[in-house]
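pasting input
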Amino acid sequence: MKRHFPVLARTALLMLALGTSAASVPGIDPAKSTIVATFRQEGVPVDAAFKRFNGHIDYDPTRPNASKAALEITTGSLDLGSEEYSAEVRKKNWFDSATYPTATFISTALRPGDAGHFDATGILTLKGKTQTLKIPVSVGKVGAATSFDGEVQISRSTFGIGDPEWKDVVDDAVRVKFHLVQ
Amino acid sequence: MRQSTVYTRTAVALHWLIALLIGAGFTLGANMTDLHMSPRKLRLYSYHKWIGITVLGLVLIRVLWRLTHRPPPDEPMPSWQRHAAHLTHGLLYALMICTPVVGWLYSSATGYPVVYLKLWQLPDLVPKNDALAKMLVIVHGSLAWTLLAVVALHAAAALKHHYVDRDATLRRILSWRAS
């Protein structure tokens, strides 16, 4: 119970973040959104999409202090283009999806920049480790919906994703690009 | 074009360098697919692809050289053997070009482009297509095994000429004399 407490606390926080906004604005539409991890393996570029995720971005440039974003990604849903590779990254030395089924990003501040841009500062929790990220986001329109685009670079080794033996074959730097439509 | 009794040094060097690379590439190809996923497996796949692209490049150079530098006239032999030899060599050229090209097509169809020597990304010959990839890997493997069979025939014939007929066929491609 004690080991699970941080996970429960974070899940509760996420549900709170999602729940309090859910009543006012609908959440991210996963069918129209993409979250893609891009990295190099032996020099070969790989684009791998997370197939399952949900979240909510409640952004109002006139009320930045009331704005928040929360995202939850199913780690085992990463599609590397072939099942042999996708199954490999669910294992203990990569995402360990059985133990850590989700990764979350919960914002601490959304700071407006130029028109249609803001910086999202928040905490990424992945494989039991946390990191504060500052992500520049562009806001756009897709029909009646709003789109949020941006990318952030993270280091695999920060989160213990991929044993050191893989470091010469798979780059440590992973760019995560998102296009979220809500 | 001047006629000589031996192959040019360029032809000799290309012949044996390509033979060595094909041997290495084939050995990797035949063994790497059964390995469990590991960094080593990905590295071996890379080496296999780099060897394939290198062979393709060298064979194209060899073809250009062959078109501009006539090989020595055939040793005396029955005409059916002469025709068989020329047919075999032609088949070898065709297989040495088709096998890596199909490999490149296959790599493209899997969605993983070839990045030669980890430095130069080669263009994808086809877009990602799982069904096409499944078909291409079979073609690539079949061509590779056919190449192996023809190489074996080619080598056996060379040894026959050397030890049975005792003619200069093998000596000509082992020679390092300036021509």
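fyi Chain A touches chain B at residues 41-46, 81-82, 84-85, 88, 165-166, 168-170 (CB under 8 Å).
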